[in-house]
Specification:
Oligomer: single chain
Shape: globular
CATH topology of the largest domain: Rossmann fold
Number of helices: 13
CATH class of the largest domain: Alpha Beta
Strand order of the largest sheet: 6-3-2-7-8-9-12-14
Radius of gyration: 19 Å
Order of helices and strands: HEEHEHEEEEHEHEEEEEHEHHHHHHH
CATH architecture of the largest domain: 3-Layer(aba) Sandwich
Number of strands: 14
CATH superfamily of the largest domain: NAD(P)-binding Rossmann-like Domain
Helix content: 40-55%
Distance between the termini: 39 Å
Largest sheet: 8 strands, mixed
């Protein structure tokens, strides 16, 4: 499954420039703190923990007590991962931010005690903005760009299940020459047995993942449909593609080279996911939680207004999901 999945994702088109490697000058990563213990945060924390990294969750209040007492369970295996209160923190080598967008602002202060001179920060959050927001607080030089693609993790209480671990795309904005800090993280991900790729043009990959989220998450939330519906039904695929088409037009306006071929690339990934798997937005709607629609449809509408590009499909889905969030049942 892992090798086949890797071959599929390697077909995602990036600019075919050679990557020149440079000498690594900084020490290896050994300590990891994870902010966010949802599906993605729990999965990545479990991978680093079982690989022998000094791993901890970042939390306070009720979440701190819950994690301290119960830990997390990933694919039916309990992981007694420690939890650290920000008031008792010291710097670590790597911080992974795995929050919902609407939780980021209030949690930013909790990051500072974990950040030292050589700390790297990797955001696996959705959207286009988390790296810039985090960088404003702890320094842009600490943050690498990242997207998680193809992971189908689902959280139910403290239990997380997944069948496809997906792949991390990360790096500087331009990785024509791979920087020492990127090499440090590559070595750590290899040790944690996590699939990754460092594409030459990371900003294009950010927009590609944004396109996927805008189409897949919103369409699945409104239809109440798992991945299998989009793997098989042309009508569902047409709705998803209509949402994605508006992102492509916005990306091209900003000189990011997204095309319709990028939707075809997504279908190859989609077919590897569990038909019963659910997007994070569908999970949120089903559980009655706040969704990230502002950073999907809302962001598309905002950019469309800024650039003078109509985005009627995303505006419609944005309003529909806002209604779903407020239903009393």
């Amino acid at each position: 499954m892992g090798r086949g999945f890797s071959r599929i994702l390697l077909k995602i088109r990036v600019h075919p420039r050679p990557i020149k490697r440079v000498h690594m000058t900084l020490s290896f990563l050994d300590s990891v703190a994870v902010l966010g213990a949802g599906a993605l945060g729990s999965f990545y924390a479990s991978q680093f923990y079982q690989a022998g990294f000094a791993t901890t969750f970042i939390a306070r209040g009720a979440r701190y007590e819950q994690l301290k007492q119960a830990g997390v369970v990933v694919n039916e295996r309990p992981f007694p991962i420690p939890v650290t209160h920000p008031d008792e923190a010291s710097p670590v080598d790597l911080v992974i931010v795995a929050l919902k967008h609407h939780h980021l602002a209030e949690a930013l202060g909790d990051l500072r005690p974990f950040v030292g001179p050589h700390t790297l920060i990797l955001s696996v959050m959705n959207g286009l903005d988390s790296e810039a927001i985090i960088g404003e607080v702890v320094g842009a030089e600490k943050v690498l760009y990242c997207v998680a693609v193809g992971i189908d993790a689902v959280r139910d209480g403290r239990c997380v299940t997944y069948s496809a671990p997906g792949k991390l795309f990360f790096g500087e904005a331009d990785n024509t020459a791979v920087s020492p800090r990127v090499q440090r993280l590559q070595a750590a991900l290899t040790r944690a047995t996590l699939l990754y790729e460092t594409p030459p043009d990371m900003l294009r990959i950010l927009w590609w993942k944004f396109m996927i989220n805008v189409g897949m998450n919103q369409a699945s939330a409104v239809l109440g449909a798992p991945y299998g519906v989009f793997q098989t039904l042309p009508e569902a695929q047409a709705l998803m593609e209509a949402l994605m088409d508006e992102v492509i037009r916005l990306a091209q306006h900003t000189a990011v080279n997204l095309t319709r071929q990028d939707i075809d690339d997504w279908y190859r990934v989609l077919q590897t996911l569990s038909p019963q798997g659910k997007t994070s937005m569908l999970q949120d709607v089903t559980a009655g939680r706040k969704t990230e629609v502002e950073m999907f449809g809302g962001k598309v509408v905002s950019l469309g207004q800024r650039y003078g590009i109509p985005t009627p499909v995303n505006e419609t889905f944005w309003r529909m999901i806002q209604v779903l969030e407020q239903r009393p049942f």
